[in-house]
Each structure stands twice: as structure tokens, then as C-alpha cells.
Amino acid sequence: MKLSQRITNITGGGSDGWDVFYKARRMIAKGVDVTELTIGEHDIRTDPVILAAMDQSARGGHTGYAMVPGTQEMREAVAARLTERTGVPTSYENILITPGGQSALFAAHVATCSPGDRALYIDPYYATYPGTIRGVGAEPVPIRTHAANAFKPKAEEIAVEATKGAASLLVNTPNNPTGTVYGRDTLNGIAQVCKEHDLWLISDEVYDTQVWEGEHISPRSLPDMAERTLVVGSMSKSHAMTGSRIGWIAAPKEVITHLINLATHTTYGVPGFIQDAAVFALAQGEELEAEIAAPFERRRDIAKDILANQNTVGLVPAQGAMYIMLDVRATGLSGEAFANSLLDTHNIATMPGESFGHSAHGHIRVAMTVDDKRFKSALQTLVDHAEHLAA
Ligand code: PMP
Hints:
Layout: H1 5-8, H2 19-29, E1 35-36, H3 48-59, H4 72-86, E2 95-98, H5 100-112, E3 118-123, H6 129-135, E4 139-144, H7 155-163, E5 168-172, H8 184-196, E6 200-204, E7 229-234, E8 247-250, H9 253-264, H10 272-283, H11 285-308, E9 314-315, E10 323-327, H12 335-346, E11 348-349, E12 351-352, E13 363-367, H13 372-390
Parallel strand pairs: 1-11, 3-4, 3-5, 5-6, 6-7
Antiparallel strand pairs: 2-8, 7-8, 9-10, 10-13, 12-13
The structure holds 4'-deoxy-4'-aminopyridoxal-5'-phosphate.
4'-deoxy-4'-aminopyridoxal-5'-phosphate (PMP) binds next to helix 5.
Cofactor: pyridoxal 5'-phosphate
Keywords: Aminotransferase, Pyridoxal phosphate, Transferase
Family: Belongs to the class-I pyridoxal-phosphate-dependent aminotransferase family.
């Protein structure tokens, strides 16, 4: 039987650069003690107080169908958070609650791209981006960035592709995989291109609570951008709730009305007890979020200290998120070859920069997701290994 082109085309064919990751998983299954610095999963679990709220809600009977757009309480909690943190007046009618940021990314592209439309995104990128775009039948168009500019996009380079016609542009700050945070100039440039070329902006802000330097600026807050921006948010990273699958889209009311139709025909909403737990979690405010984010800033500083004492491995300036991007070009190896050799010789698993597109070749991404002591030792071993290769 023939499957649809849309579903068979999602991965786009070819190698996706995840071989090192799968190799590490096979080693772990065989009992090897691998230090996993690969995916963006906290080394802590969801806080017990959030679980207690979930339990109370479920036992209280909130286990039936929840309202498809999200519960009133959850939509209002997210709206209040965005109003307070971005200054953009936001009501519950601007919010759709989704099962995680990933489904929000998919829904946002369904809402903005027709089949065959070109959808722009910034390279290096979070691994699912091109597949998400292909999944809605649109054509993924990467915009290359440069290590020398900390992988921040340049407006004129986005404009080159926008001029050829495109429906949307997807950006992500704080950024996975690079850890960079876009400043006001970068975002103003992006906003300008969107307005000049009539692009929808899809702004993935799932790392908005993890900023170590500068500030998180939501491009939705820039002049005349709220009407063309869809913000993707999530509780996965901010509240260590990856497995709860809860996130949102903030967008103009008309967009949300259509997205509710999509949700009715796809997810049919998010479990009520998860939403109640999320409302509770959001009500804990920035203190809990800061506590959950703190280890990544601490480990970024550990990495900075270790890297300050050598000249072989370069650190892309990392101002946020749970990753650092390291330049290993001085070893003469590609990111993939370096990651493989580090895994083979020292049982340390990292992600090749090539897993995230073409711009980050010769780099590796290190997820700062093991305890400080283990992180420090792994990073020192990584540097020693690079120096050995370079010598
Ligand atoms: N966007 C980015 C940039 C991510 O790194 C992730 C998860 N790693 C997501 C979206 C999706 O996260 P979730 O579906 O868990 O909310």
C-alpha cells in the first residue's frame, strides 16, 4: 500500500546526523557508563509540588475531556504571563494550549503555510524544524548563519530568501543548539524583513526562562509585530515538565480561532489535570523557574573556566538555554568525526554540529544536562582529547 507523500517525506531522506546519539544509546543498553551530553532533558524531574497539584486535580475528577482550546484558567495564566513579561496586552483569546511546544510548532506552520509554500528557518536549527515544515506540505528553506557572528541571523541574508517568496520565518531565541540569545538589533532586523516581505513570524521561545546574559526579547513585542507573530511556548524546559507535554501558541485572535478548529480535529485538547498542574506551576512565579534554570548557568560558567585555559576548543558565546556549542575545527575533524572519536575513546556523547544543519559544521553541541562534577570532568576530558588530536 502506498503511503502519502506528506508523511513519507517528513524526514527528507538521507542521514540526519543522529548516528552518534543512537550509538551512545546502544552502548548504554549494553551497560557502558556513557556521559550523555546529547538531548535537552534536565537531570532533575518535575518538582513534587507540581506533581501533587496534578494528583489532586486528577483525583478531584479532572480526567474527562478538557476544553479544546485549553482551560480558561490555563489560557488566562499564560496570557497574564506574556502580558507581564513582554508588555504586549494578551488575553485568553490570544492563547491556544497545546500538547507541548512541538505540536505548537506544527500547528503554527499549518496555520501559516499552504502546501508548496516556502517556509524559512534559521540554520543551525532545532532538529525537528525541517521535518515539521515538510509535515505540513511546505518547503523548508534554511537561512545560513555564521560562527563568526555567533550564529545570529543577518536581516539581509534572510531578505535574500524572502525576496524569492515565502510564507513564514521561524526563529528561536534563546537558541537551541547554539545557546545564543538574539539582541534587539538582530530582532529588529528580523521584524523589518517580516514586514517588508509580509511574512508570518513563528517565534520559538521555549527557552525564555534560561537567559544568563542580556534579556529575552519576544519579537511579538516589537512595533507592529503582534499582528503577524505566533509565539511558541512550553513548560518543558521552564518547569522540567518535558513528559507532561504542555505548551502554547500566542497569536492574533483570528489565528487562534482557526487553530482551535485544527486542535478539534487533531489533539482534541490537553488533559485537564496536566493543565491544572501547569497553572499551579506558573503561579509559583519566577522563583521556581530560576531554580530550575540555575544549573545550566552554573555549568556554562564551569565550561567557560575550563575553556579559558586553552586555545584548541572555541566556545560560541552562550547567553542562554541548556547547551553550549564548541568549535572543534582546530582538531582538523568534522563535528561528527570529533563526536564519534570522543564517544569511542572516552564514552562521552555529544551531538555533532552537523545534526543541526550546515552552518555548524566543525562544531559539537554539548547539552549541560549532567551534574556539575560529572560535567566538569567530561568537559576537561573533551578539551584534553581535542588537544591530543590537534597536536
Ligand atoms: N523548540 C526547541 C528549540 C526545542 O529545543 C524543543 C525541545 N527540545 C522544542 C521546541 C519542543 O519542546 P516540547 O515539545 O517538549 O515543548
